[in-house]
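Fig. S4 source data, part A: sequence.
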Amino acid sequence: MVKQEDLEASWSLVTTAEGLERAADSLASGNDQIGVDAERASGFRYGSEAYLVQMYRRGSGTFLFDPTKIDDFSILRDAVIGEEWILHAASQDLPCLDMLGLKPETLFDTELASRLLGFERVGLGSVVEQLLGIQLSKAHSAADWSTRPLPQDWLEYAALDVALLPDLRDAIAEHLETQGKTEIAAQEFEAVRLKAPKPPTEEPWRKLAGGNRLRTPRELALARELWNARDALGREKDVAPGRLVPDASLIVAAKMNPRSRGELAGNKDFRGRASRSEIERWWKAIVKAKTADPPSAKPRARDVDAIPHHRNWGQRFPEAATRLAAAREAIASEAERQHMPVENLLTPDVMRRLVWDPPASLTEDAVRARLLELGAREWQAVLTAPVLTEVFVELA
C-alpha cells in the first residue's frame, strides 16, 4: 500500500490573470480527460462559493486556482469546455463551479460510478485505496478553505486529490465495462450534469435542528424571527449562521419566550459567539415575533402534485400501502441482482408516486412509460418496469 506522504504532486498556484492564461494554454494542450475538484468553506462562510479550484490533465500538470484573486475565469472555461471533466461526487462541486462560469459539457463522476458498481464505501479515499492501492489522508477535508494564505500542506493535499482522478477514472471505467454498466453510468452522469438547482426553500427556518420540539404558534413565530435575524447577521458578516448562534440556542430562546432581553441573556443555554454581543438584535426579533402573525403549524406544500405521506398509507390507503410494500421488496431484490444500491436503481420518490397512481393498463410498456413520465432514467425504466409490472398484476 502506497501512502500519501510517499507521493509527490507538483502543482502551480494561480493567482493572477497572467498565470491563468498560461495555465489555460497548458491545460488546452494536454491529453485525455481533466480531473476537477473544488474546495469550499462550508460551515465557516455564509455562502457556498469555491475558495480553491483544482484541475489536472496528463501532459499539462496540476493547477490550483484562487477565486479570491481571479475575477474572470472565461479563458479557463474556453480552454477546457469541450473536454470530459472527472469529479468525485460532482453534485457537491458543480454549483460552486457554475458560479465561476465553469461547467462541463461531458462528465464522469467517480463517486456515482462507484455506487453503481456496488462498492460498499464510495468516499474518494476508500475508492482510491481499493482501486489504485494508494492511502490518502483526509486531514484537511473539513478545513476552512477561505483561509489566506493557504498553508502549504493544504495545497499539497488539494493537488494530490485531483491528480489521481484520471487514473481512478480509467480503473472505474474498466469495472463499468465488465459489469455492463457503461451506458447506465453515462445516463446518470448526464442527469447530474443537467440537474437544475433546487428552488429556494420558502420557509428555511423550519429546518432548524430540534424544530420538532416547537409546539405552539408563538414558539414557531419566535423561531422564525430569530432565524431571520441570525441569517441576516451571517450574510452581513459572511459567516455561517450556525457559527454565530447554533440552532439549539434558537430553539432554547423560542421555547422560553423571554419577557426581557435580560432574561434571554441570563439563560446559560442560549449560547454562541454572537449570543451576547448581538443581544439587542435577538431581542428585536423576539419583540417582532410577539406581535407578528404566527406561522401555520405545518409548512406550506410546494408541490401541486404532492401525494399523502406514505407513513399514513397503512391506515388511510391500505391498497397503496400493500403495493408499496411489494414494490419495495421486488426492487430491493432487483438492486441486489444488479449489485447497486436500491436508491440508484429507482429513487424512493418515483417508486412511491408510481404505486400511488399506477397506469390503468398494467402492461410493461405502460409501466415503463409511467416511470419515464415520473422522471426515471431510460435504463431505470428498462430494468424496473418488468419487475413492477409483475407486482401490479399479482395484486390486481
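Fig. S4 source data, part B ends here. The chain has three domains: 2-194, 204-291, 310-395.
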